[in-house]
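Person: At home tonight, work slowly through the protein below, taking as long as you need, and write a paragraph about the fold.
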Amino acid sequence: AELSRLWNAEPEGGLTVWIGMDLVIAITVSWVPLIPDYTRFSRDRRAAWWGAGLGYFVAASWMLVLGVLLVLTRGLSDPAELPAAVVGAGLAAALAVLAVTVDETDEAFANIYSTAVSLQNLVPGAPQRALVALVSVAATIGALAFDLRRYQDFLFLLGAFFVPLLGVLLAHWLLNGARYSRSDVFDAPVVRPALLGAWLLGFAVYQWLHPTGPSWWVDAVESVRPPTGELDAIGVSIPSFVAAFALAAAAVVLSRR
């Protein structure tokens, strides 16, 4: 690829830079709940920070850059065309697709395990193996029914869930002295209504600025948006994160008083 030509090409994708950043953030932030599964093996805080930070940054940047080059050089407009375009690039590319396919298998196991562990917070008495089996069946059905051409909508939905969740977690962690002890986790209240409210507000802000989901939901949100539009001029992740972070911080401070 002629990188200079691609860098100077006129934009034609229909998305602003800020909305493009929201998609990148959504891809990355959705993995935040899985990071502790790795950092819990770290020997100290510095190793946890640099291991997770550099590991995710290098891998995510590499894959995103490859995706950009592939889309721009092959002139693709449909996500479903990606696998065929890679395989058609030659034997080495076909082997790369095979490697990614194998890699995605263990990624599915990680997702299923993480979901089962999260569900155990709601139903501690449920057997973990049963939860793993149920999540596997539900995920398989969802994968078969999912339309790859709507993957962008799926990413926005991920962002709406996880961006404000990270804001709540970061606010609570910082006001807790930037560290958690064993008692902070296992002796904490079962439900924290104020923090749940902060997360829901962040989700509402994200959806209000950029509604995503079933048509009935998008129509309902659109009906309460002002007619001027352009509410996502600086993207949607930053306003959602700030709203959830601020409300969670206020909730923590007031609860201590």
Observations:
- The CA atoms of residues 115 and 135 lie 7 Å apart.
- The mean pLDDT is 86.
